[in-house]
Design goal:
Strand content: 15-25%
Strand order of the largest sheet: 1-2-3-4-5
Low-confidence stretches: 1-18
Radius of gyration: 39 Å
Number of strands: 5
Distance between the termini: 83 Å
Order of helices and strands: HHHHHEEEEE
Shape: rod-shaped
Oligomer: single chain
Length: 194
């Protein structure tokens, strides 16, 4: 059987199963040739015997995928960690800002920020002076010679190592990502105000 005959019998050389990829025909017994002419089942059976079905992935393909996933993880995980840290910072900033407004109201009403402790007047501490439970920060208020100092210290998750303060003059960042700094603002993304 010639290469041309193989092509006439059913498409390309690989599809026929009766012709190898090299183009040279297999040696087929004459009885099989007669059966081939009369029946298509021989072609189907012969094709199944000679055709290897490749399933799955090769080791090289798997290694390429593992490498790509590793590179993406090396970039994505630190970005995600920073993203979650920035999402936890507003709790501290919000509570410090709220407390500042209340301290200034106390000053306008009494001409001082408190007698013995923050916002205490005549041994009475208002309910708002007790810091509500925060999830990521611990708060503390102290009276100073000039006025008051409120400190928010990161205690949970990604904000451990951040310390923000607020006094009558405004906000300050004392520690940022565990590093001691002194900025006249509350840092969140990088070491720059604004």
């Amino acid at each position: 059987m010639s290469t041309a005959r193989c092509r006439r019998m059913g498409g390309s050389l690989r599809e026929t199963g009766g012709c190898p990829p090299s183009g040279r025909p297999f040696r087929i017994h004459p009885k099989e040739i007669r059966a081939m002419k009369s029946s298509t089942t021989f072609l189907v059976r012969h094709r199944r015997l000679n055709c290897r079905v490749v399933r799955g992935f090769t080791l090289v393909e798997l290694m390429v995928v593992v490498g790509i996933v590793g590179i993406l993880a090396a970039v994505a995980v630190p970005s995600y960690m920073e993203y979650t840290r920035r999402g936890q910072l507003p709790e501290g900033v919000r509570m410090l800002s709220d407390y500042r407004i209340k301290m200034e109201q106390t000053f306008q009403d009494n001409r001082n920020y408190g007698v013995k402790s923050c916002a205490t007047q005549n041994d009475v501490t208002p309910k708002w002076a007790n810091f509500e439970q925060a999830k990521y920060f611990k708060f503390e208020c102290k009276l100073t010679e000039k006025g008051y100092l409120i400190t928010a210290t990161g205690i949970g998750a990604r904000v451990i190592g951040d310390v923000y303060t607020l006094d009558q003059d405004g906000p300050h960042t004392i520690k940022f990502k565990g590093e001691v700094v002194d900025y006249p603002c509350w840092l969140s993304r990088d070491k720059s105000c604004g």
